[in-house]
Write a structure and sequence with these properties.
single chain; alpha/beta; 20 helices; 6 strands
């Protein structure tokens, strides 16, 4: 029975997504026993050649993770794939066979040959101005991706019943000694200063999440340190999670801990009956092999926001963090008055955050999703926020290339045609 190495790789990939082994074997003309042996790991290589570091099923897990990350909008580099591989080797307690501890170029080339569903592409590097001018393309591409995913999982992003299935998470830093925005002084004063509670204040990371229906999750408080103490976790918001890291900022282990211990239990009643979408920043501090696996098994679809667009596409940045930090400054000011100038510490931080969380309103979450154009889904809402310089660039592109994808998009074309002054200036420029 004749079949190619590519046929075998494709058959293994389809079986990995849940396809019937017998039907897949017949489809590609591969003996069922051969396909079974490769999937079970009895044979470690696809086609001819020496034994591979991982079994076929283990390599399939790595390849599937790469494809999942790509579908999330996360740009994968060779170095990142190597990190994922090393992480998997450690997780599975497989002896590391690489001399320097990480795979070299030879392994990388053989891996791509074994998995033709993956290909290496050179990214296009844009200058700052070109990146700004391409924002409409990026934004339209982003909304296309969101719409495509919503259709594939039968989720209506304009139906109020779907709002509780859209979630967003992000972190920010809360300073333990926030200053005032403005002070009342004598007119003409040259130096305006404020007595602080000391120079040893710090920023403590707080990871937040909320859904489009307005429901916020309890916060994940992340301290800088090597050991966690019970007094750092007393008096906080009900259901809050606590963690530590050497830098005080988010890392893959803590993000995974939040996902497994706080997020999944909160949405488990939803994932049993349908999909859940989680939007987050595609930063390396959020990504791990175990996270991708856990999300895939739990019916949670992860979506990374495009780079350099979080100021308009990040729901928490748009409508959640601003009122949160305003209320935080008020709470700290009151605390300083009550304690005669003492600063907040890790011991008092949880109780202060508990007061802060009482000020969080459902409208803050709803407004964030609405402001980011995610619910109800509206790319038009975001395109109207673009600065005039970008609008001119888009108008010029539409005039120069009438058949372009951007010009043919009804929402984009309608909006930019309505800005006649921009079009007029564009025509004068051309």
């Amino acid at each position: 029975m004749a079949y190619s190495k590519e046929d075998l790789s494709n058959a293994m990939e389809e079986c990995g997504t849940g396809a019937s082994m017998g039907a897949t074997a017949r489809k590609y003309g591969i003996p069922r026993s051969t396909l079974h042996d490769h999937i079970s790991g009895k044979h470690k290589q696809v086609g001819k050649g020496g034994p591979t570091v991982l079994t076929s099923s283990e390599e399939r897990e790595i390849a599937l993770t790469c494809m999942t990350l790509g579908g999330m909008g996360f740009g994968l580099t060779r170095n990142l794939v190597e990190i994922v591989l090393v992480e998997y080797i450690k997780e599975q307690q497989i002896p590391n066979p690489f001399r320097s501890g990480i795979p070299g170029r030879d392994w990388w080339e053989r891996f791509l040959r074994r998995w033709p569903c993956l290909s290496e592409r050179k990214p296009q590097h844009l200058s700052k101005k070109r990146a700004e001018a391409s924002h409409p393309d990026i934004i339209n591409g982003w909304f296309d991706r969101v719409e495509e995913l919503a259709r594939s999982v039968s989720l209506d992003l304009s139906d109020p019943e779907s709002a509780h299935r859209l979630w967003k998470c992000d972190e920010t830093g809360l300073c333990t000694a926030a200053g005032s925005k403005t002070l009342l002084v004598k007119r003409g004063s040259r130096q305006v200063s404020e007595v602080s509670s000391g120079s040893d204040h710090e920023y403590i990371t707080i990871h937040c999440a909320g859904c489009a229906s307005g429901e916020p999750l309890p916060p994940f408080i992340l301290y800088k340190g090597k050991n966690m103490y019970r007094r750092w976790m007393e008096g906080g918001p009900a259901g809050a999670l606590y963690g530590i890291s050497e830098s005080g900022w988010m890392d893959p282990a803590n993000f995974l801990s939040w996902f497994l211990k706080l997020f999944l239990p909160a949405v488990s009643h939803l994932t049993e009956t349908g999909p859940v979408l989680l939007f987050f920043d595609g930063h390396y501090s959020h990504i791990s092999l175990e996270l991708i696996r856990a999300a895939r098994q739990s019916n949670v679809h992860l979506l990374c926001l495009p780079p350099n667009t979080t100021y308009i596409l990040q729901p928490l940045d748009v409508g959640f963090f601003s009122p949160l930090k305003t209320n935080w400054r008020k709470i700290l000011k009151l605390y300083r008055l009550q304690t005669k100038g003492q600063k907040a510490t890790k011991e008092t931080f949880p109780s202060l955050v508990s007061q802060l969380w009482e000020s969080v309103k459902p409208e803050h979450c709803k407004g964030g999703f609405r402001g980011a154009g995610l619910f109800p889904l509206s790319r038009q809402h975001i395109l109207t926020k673009l600065p005039p310089s970008v609008a001119i660039a888009v108008a010029m592109k539409c005039l120069q290339h009438p058949s372009s994808r951007l010009a043919s998009h009804p929402t984009s074309l309608e909006y930019y045609k309505s800005r006649r002054s921009d079009l007029k200036r564009a025509r004068e420029t051309i």
